[in-house]
Amino acid sequence: MKNLVKIDFDGVDPEHGAPKPERVISGDPQFRTWNCDEAEGGIYAGIWEATPGKWRIAYDEWEFCHILSGRSVITEDDGVEHHVEAGDSFVLRPGFRGTWEVLETTRKEYVIKL
């Protein structure tokens, strides 16, 4: 077992997905996810990409995100908007509710703890 895992999707086939239809607000957002590592206790790390669109999000997990490219707006249910773009890092905590709107195809690195 490796004790250092590079977050790199060379040789990793992406999983394709989309938000559940009832969560989509606008557009036809499509996802690609390269899960590069996982560990006991529900920890995952990799790269995620989404095409333009807007959908509702609800987090039960903890997620660290680092935006690699693109632009998105993440809006909390109370109306507070967070504009994110390449170079931005943030954490979405369990209980976060709101929307994710991809303005330009967005790619992020992530670490999720269930």
From TrEMBL:
<feature type="domain" description="(S)-ureidoglycine aminohydrolase cupin">
    <location>
        <begin position="39"/>
        <end position="110"/>
    </location>
</feature>
<protein>
    <submittedName>
        <fullName>Cupin</fullName>
    </submittedName>
</protein>
<dbReference type="InterPro" id="IPR014710">
    <property type="entry name" value="RmlC-like_jellyroll"/>
</dbReference>
<dbReference type="InterPro" id="IPR008579">
    <property type="entry name" value="UGlyAH_Cupin_dom"/>
</dbReference>
<dbReference type="Pfam" id="PF05899">
    <property type="entry name" value="Cupin_3"/>
</dbReference>
<dbReference type="InterPro" id="IPR011051">
    <property type="entry name" value="RmlC_Cupin_sf"/>
</dbReference>
